[in-house]
Amino acid sequence: MKTEQPSTVLFDLDGTLIDTAPDFIRCLNELRQMDGLPALPSEHIRRSVSNGARAMVRVGFGLEPEHPDYVAKHTAFLDLYEAGVAVETRLFEDMDALLVSLEQRGIPWGIVTNKPARFAKPLVQALGLAERCASLVCPDHVTDRKPHPEALLLACQQIGADPEQAVYVGDHERDIKAGRNARMKTIAVRYGYIEEPETIDLWQADMIADTVNDLAKLLQ
Can you list the positions of beta strands (E) in 29-119? Predict the structure, then answer.
């Protein structure tokens, strides 16, 4: 990849391209406050953000989907989050410079996420990325979620890129599996929302980036 320019670079959203954790943390602790519960430490919540609302309900209230109170808590969390998807969410530091570099080199970039379009579209719009990204693929647009390769292949099709010359960047093992299943090069990012115990070195990614600057160097 250091000698060949990728046909496109696709990013996972939460924990890879943008730091959504502050709004997840804010919403979960607001929900706990409504129940008279104390706020949880930010880092305790942050590690599970990539697993979405289900993980937030588990972390915040110890509830699994089969519990009778689960649906109400899950719905309440999503409603709270939808009302403020981009209050504190930002691109990761140095990520804008990386995107500008791709754009200046004529390399299209896109987003492939397991975040439903209900949240992803307004979030991407609020951050000024909607006009810049060449593709945004959410679970709503495909039959099978990551780690199935369908979403990644759809993004490449929309962009007109060869998947075997493309790169997928993510912070979860399912991202790396999806990229490998699509025959793409994969980069795992350690700066993302990595659950404990950390097993990123076992994901079989082609490369690992500890920071956004490391990622930028790998994409040069």
Answer: 90-91, 109-112
Active site residue 69: no
Active site (annotated) includes residue 201: no
- What's the CA gap between 10 and 74, in Å, rounded? 29
204: left (phi over 0), alpha (psi -120 to 50) or beta: left
Whether residue 48 has pLDDT greater than 50: yes
Q: List own/partner pairs for 200-204 with CB under 8 A and 24 or more apart.
A: 203/173, 203/176, 203/177, 204/176, 204/180
Mean pLDDT of all residues belonging to the chain = 95
The two beta strands, 90-91 and 18-19, are antiparallel
> Tell me, what DSSP letter sits at residue 30?
H
Cα distance between residue 113 and residue 145, in whole Å: 9
Of 12, 19, 171, 175, which residue is the catalytic one?
12
Tell me: pLDDT of 214 over 80.
yes
CA gap 55, 48 in Å, rounded: 6
- Rounded Cα–Cα distance for residues 44 and 143 (Å): 32
Asked whether residue 3 carries a pLDDT value surpassing 50, the answer given is: no
Q: Which amino acid is at 206?
A: D
Instruction: Give the pLDDT confidence score for residue 136 in this predicted structure.
Output: 98
For CA atoms 28, 29, 33, 39, give the dihedral sign: positive
pLDDT band at 207 (very low <50, low <70, confident <90, very high): very high
Residue 115 has pLDDT above 70, yes or no: yes
